[in-house]
Amino acid sequence: MTNNTSALELIQAIEEADSSDSLLDAVEALANARLEEASPTLIAVLSYNNPGAAVAAIDGLVQLGEVAVLPLLNLMDDYNYGGRAWAIRALAGIADPRALETLLVAAEQDFSMSVRRAAARGLGNLHWSKMLPSEVSSAQKQVFTTLQLTSQDAEWVVRYATAVALQGLGSSVTVSQPDLAGEIKSQLEQMLATDADLTVRTRVQLALKEFRI
Amino acid sequence: MESSPENYTEVDSPEHLTVEQAIANLKGEDRGLQYYAAWWLGRFRVKEPEAIEALIFALQDEGNRTESGGYPLRRNAAKALGKLGELQAVPALIACLDCSDFYVRESAAESLGMLSDRSCVPQLMKLLVGGLAANQPIPGFPHLPQPCAAVIEALGTLGATEAIELIEPFLEHPVELVQYATARAMYQLTQNPSYGDRLVKALSGDKLQLRRAALSDLGAIGYLPAAKAISETLAENSLKLISLKGLLEHHVKNHYRETREQGIGNREQGREFLPFNGESEDILKNSSESSSISDTAIYLMNLMDDLL
Questions:
Q1: What distance in Å separates the CA atoms of residue A94 and residue A119, rounded to the nearest whole number?
Q2: pTM for this structure?
Q3: So what's the ipTM on this one?
Q4: Is B287 in contact with A164 (Cβ distance < 8 A)?
Q5: How open is the CA angle B121-B156-B118, to the nearest 5 degrees?
Q6: Where are the alpha helices (DSSP H) in A128-155?
Q7: Across chain A, what does the average pLDDT equal?
Q8: Least confidently predicted of A15-19, B35-39, B145-149
Q9: Percent of chain B residues past pLDDT 90, beyond the cut
């Protein structure tokens, strides 16, 4: 009961916020309360065109984790572009495999590089143990195919995120799919040999170092 | 908020110009097309001799004027020439430092900084003569008498140590962006950490616009002690990532150079900081699993990873 009351109050504070600062405070308070019923409100905040508040809302949604995934996936299409971009970043942060399709599409096609980089990063991080075991290996191959594409992105930051993701994917498949692990390693070696950006190459080098096969 | 890099669309939709068309437009009569072509040639790094010549010619354009007497085409041409890296533009850009249009002087100073040709140093220094007193804000004007920040940044980038005494007083300039440019240049010219620390302090300031400027300056000078503060300042992750990229590349290049200069550039050591283009093939051949990366580089990349 007290829980519900406080949730209601915290949500109300967001609706009544009359300045950028008071909105940010209200969102942070709701995010920190870690209440499952807060998801829809936090998702709504993503569309307020207030970057500070959106970052706080994403932190809150990522902390809520799994319970926020379906609301994010369900509510997302109804929102404006800015809100959708933030929602994809929240899904990437939560890393629940139910967001797989959404993240694959975002990494390949979104027109904003900050969304592509977040989606690519998220793909390397997915919690595979939450997926049906029978589906895991083909999903991992699908992720690799997308990461091969993002490794050619025009923006260095997306390629950087791809290196991070390849490292993550690589370490999840070392034992289960040694063939795929080998392909990932070759992909990284190819990036090291050909990428024009020093920062990307340095990150690839770290990925190869961390990812031993 | 409109200008937030998190919000704007990051896609370039280049109008369907070809190099030939752009050059023709630049030489043509239509002022709108001329103006756009000058920008386009810089944006797409068109280094054809004909483009360079046409841009240099455009620095003396008289046709395109604003109501207050500005030279929009000259401004764009000066900016483009900085991006193209052709030193033959230097004398014409130096001449632009005397232009009556503030924004032409500013663009020329920026471009001269990018072209790494020190022959412009005396003329850049001339714009700072009179120091603080001569460069106070003018009531009712959006800009200072001279483009101090651009000039000071250029002098820093060009390593103009002879300008240190002239630049240093601008640390006390009333405009924060001029102070930052000065701290940035002073750091580049002296390597004294107190100047880097001033920029770090700026990261905790109140105004987003100024925090963004400090991020950019710290990235440009590659000031390592700023890493943590960069990752924590209140600004868009995209800008923090670019700033940390500056630190990382500065570190990696220096480390590699030092390793080489110390004569330990044998295969083991030399490979450590290999990620240079020319070396890539060697790297690939030798990268079995032996490459090692400095702890500093790893620290920086960990900070960057968390911002993705």
A1: 11
A2: 0.82
A3: 0.88
A4: no
A5: 30
A6: 133-150
A7: 90
A8: A15-19
A9: 73
Two tokens, residue B155:
């002098």
Nearest residue of B to residue A163 by CA position? Answer: B305
Q: What is the mean pLDDT of chain B?
A: 86
Residues in chain A: 213
* Residue B305: per-residue pLDDT: 96
Q: CB contact, 8 Å: A111 with chain B?
A: yes
Kindly list the residues from chain A whose CB atom is less than 8 angstroms away from the CB atom of residue B11: 111-112
Q: What pLDDT, on the 0 to 100 scale, is given for residue B67? A: 86
CA distance B11 to chain A (A): 6
Task: State whether residue A67 is helix, strand or coil.
Answer: helix
**With an 8 Å Cβ cutoff, are A155 and B10 in contact?**
yes
Chain A residues with beta carbon closer than 8 angstroms to that of B245: 156, 199
Residues in chain B within 8 Å Cβ distance of A210: none
pLDDT per residue over A187-202, tens digit each?
A: 999 999 999 999 999 9
10 Å Cβ neighbour count for B44? 16
B121-134 average pLDDT score: 95
Flag if B291 and A203 touch (Cβ within 8 Å): no
Q: Would you give the DSSP letter of residue A161? A: H
Nearest CA in chain A to B12: A111
A-chain residues within 8 Å CB-CB of B301?
202-203, 206
